[in-house]
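User: Before I run my own analysis I want an independent prediction to cross-check against. Here's the chain; please return only the structure tokens and, at the end, one sentence I can use as a sanity check.
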Amino acid sequence: MSEAALADSDDVDPGFEHVRSLIRDVPDYPRPGVLFRDLTPVLADAEAFATVATELAARVGLADVVVGIEARGFLVGAAVALVAGVGVVPVRKPGKLPVVAASRTYDLEYGTATLELPADTVRPGSKAFVVDDVLATGGTAEATCALLTDAGAEVVGFGTVLELAGLGGRDRLAGIDVHSLFTL
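Assistant: Structure tokens:
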């Protein structure tokens, strides 16, 4: 359920209201002019974290594995995978994995970044549900989905706690079902 849907509903789930109340706005972080949406208080609250995990796990469908994007996506992804009853795989920054199956370099608004997939975790033909905490510009999400596709997996969906709709990240995931619990 998106925040817009929350505002229009008379039957707002108290769990969703609680989660939303914990999302912290941090002005001028990581640089002046940026409003950072911090989900750390959501992760620290057992009830809110359980709501997030349960709601996103309901979207996993027929996925064989949940893929969590570094770093907060690991936390959310692990909880979602546990609730959904599937495995979890971390997509990491370079130099963090002992054995790498594949890597993908992509452009950011301020440079480039690389993500790596651990070896022997995602088999060709497997179905992957990708999870991150926030969907903003979509570059990292797009690169993760491409990395999985390059490895022969089928990306069956993308789940996020918070989508910053004005930044257009969803547009970079064309053809992939995107599930956002909140949209700002």
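Sanity check: The chain has one domain: 3-183.
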